[in-house]
């Protein structure tokens, strides 16, 4: 595990502030969900990526298909990707 050298205090409601530098480097925007894990005596925060989320649209639908390991596309996302590929080859 890599130390960032950043220390934050927990407030009276149990909250901590995640520094903007970390949010930028991990591409965590305001209102993004963060998943919380516990490993022994560690708390691990990870940007939440819903399972089967479309790589293009971000939508989570039962119609999403896995086109390669871990790469899911919704029907709309597949159409957008196909249009982009076709426009690049023209």
TrEMBL record:
Keyword DNA-binding: yes
Entry-linked Pfam families: AbrB_C, MazE_antitoxin
Signal peptide: none
SpoVT-AbrB domain sequence ranges: 5-50
GO MF term list: DNA binding
Keyword Nucleus: no
Keyword terms: DNA-binding
Protein name per UniProt: AbrB/MazE/SpoVT family DNA-binding domain-containing protein
Source organism (scientific name): Planococcus shenhongbingii
């Amino acid at each position: 595990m890599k130390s960032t050298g950043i220390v934050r205090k927990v407030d009276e409601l149990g909250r901590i502030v995640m520094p903007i530098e970390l949010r930028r480097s991990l591409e965590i925007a305001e209102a993004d969900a963060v998943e919380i894990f516990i490993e022994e005596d560690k708390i691990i925060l990870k940007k939440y990526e819903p399972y089967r989320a479309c790589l293009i649209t971000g939508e989570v639908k039962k119609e999403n298909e896995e086109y390669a390991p871990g790469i899911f596309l919704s029907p709309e996302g597949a159409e957008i990707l196909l249009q982009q590929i076709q426009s690049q080859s023209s």
